[in-house]
């Protein structure tokens, strides 16, 4: 009798173990506790994403972040703009994404490749470095070889470049370390070969160019465009650059076609295992392309425009 009773109890327990989960699965969820509430954590269009940004890219990064959050209200992009080395922030897992000017250096590439989960690298826009001088300077263009001579210290007088006599003062924005490294890489094939003085920030660099006709400054195209809008247009100018052919002025059009010699790519680096970081990357590669033009640079991919003919 005891054996029969025990067998009945065991059978009831087993039946309950099967029926209860099936009933819970089949029942209609109440409005107070929908099935969706069981899903938590970030998704490609929800959650909070920290993105480190090169200082020269802060304005366009804000445009992209705001537009993304407007499209997806449950997603928030927090921009980290204080550090001068966003790649290191990504390396230390302080952020899940980084927007940087130019390709990785050999050391950065090596460090990121050693991570357990390698970082994905996605080109998203095209930018440029421009040579900016005082409007009183009579120089009309400069070649890549002449630019190398200026920033190596081999040429020190504007007369050698076709301008009026005067000692060249080569300057850079000391707060933008990445642009400095990129210029050195473009001209000399290594990151620390420039011979130039550094102003503490972009404002002081612009003021120096405005007040000194002998200054030769290099800055990004968006920084130059912002300076023109900020009241410097009457005192500074960008110099077209040649690389064996006709001099070319920097513009979104010449960046996209590759005609301008001092062009760079903008990269979005991110953790591919982070859903929101991946979602933001998809945004930058598609909807975000047209927004890069608002940041005074060129999209990486040509925008497709549909023309409807009636």
Could you describe the 3D structure shown?
This protein has 310 residues and is α/β, with parallel strands linked by helices. It folds into 2 domains: 47-126 and 265-299, D-Maltodextrin-Binding Protein, domain 2 (3-Layer(aba) Sandwich); 127-263, D-Maltodextrin-Binding Protein, domain 2. Helix content is 38%, strand content 21%. The protein is built from 11 helices and 12 strands. It has helices at 2-26, 58-71, 86-91, 106-113, 144-152, 177-188, 202-211, 221-232, 252-257, 275-285, 289-292, and strands at 47-53, 75-80, 97-101, 120-134, 142-143, 169-173, 197-199, 215-220, 236-239, 241-242, 263-270, 298-299. Strand 6 (169-173), helix 6 (177-188) and strand 7 form a beta-alpha-beta unit. The longest helix has 25 residues, at 2-26.
Please give the structural blueprint.
Elements: H1 2-26, E1 47-53, H2 58-71, E2 75-80, H3 86-91, E3 97-101, H4 106-113, E4 120-134, E5 142-143, H5 144-152, E6 169-173, H6 177-188, E7 197-199, H7 202-211, E8 215-220, H8 221-232, E9 236-239, E10 241-242, H9 252-257, E11 263-270, H10 275-285, H11 289-292, E12 298-299
């Amino acid at each position: 009798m005891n054996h029969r009773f025990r067998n009945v109890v065991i059978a009831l327990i087993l039946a309950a173990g099967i029926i209860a989960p099936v009933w819970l699965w089949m029942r209609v969820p109440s409005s107070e506790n929908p099935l969706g509430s069981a899903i938590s954590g970030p998704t490609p269009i929800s959650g909070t994403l920290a993105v480190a940004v090169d200082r020269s890219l802060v304005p366009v990064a804000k445009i992209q972040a705001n537009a993304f959050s407007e499209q997806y209200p449950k997603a928030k992009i927090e921009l980290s703009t204080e550090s001068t080395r966003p790649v290191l922030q990504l390396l230390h897992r302080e952020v899940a994404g980084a927007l940087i000017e130019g390709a990785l250096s050999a050391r950065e590439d090596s460090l990121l490749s050693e991570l357990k989960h390698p970082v994905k690298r996605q080109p998203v826009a095209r930018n440029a470095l421009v040579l900016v001088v005082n409007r009183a300077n009579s120089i009309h263009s400069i070649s890549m070889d002449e630019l190398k001579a200026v920033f190596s210290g081999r040429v020190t007088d504007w007369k050698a470049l076709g301008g009026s006599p005067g000692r060249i003062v080569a300057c850079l924005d000391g707060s933008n370390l990445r642009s400095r490294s990129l210029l050195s890489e473009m001209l000399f094939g290594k990151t620390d070969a420039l011979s130039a003085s550094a102003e503490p920030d972009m404002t002081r660099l612009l003021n120096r160019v405005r007040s000194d006709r002998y200054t030769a400054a290099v800055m990004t195209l968006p920084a130059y465009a912002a300076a023109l809008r900020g009241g410097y247009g009457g005192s500074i100018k960008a110099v077209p650059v040649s690389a064996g052919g006709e001099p070319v002025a920097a513009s979104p059009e010449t960046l996209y076609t590759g005609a301008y010699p001092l062009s760079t790519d903008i990269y979005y680096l991110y953790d591919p295992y982070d859903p929101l970081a991946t979602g933001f990357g998809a945004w930058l590669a598609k909807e975000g392309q047209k927004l890069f033009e608002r940041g005074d640079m060129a999209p990486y991919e040509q925008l497709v425009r549909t023309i409807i003919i009636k």
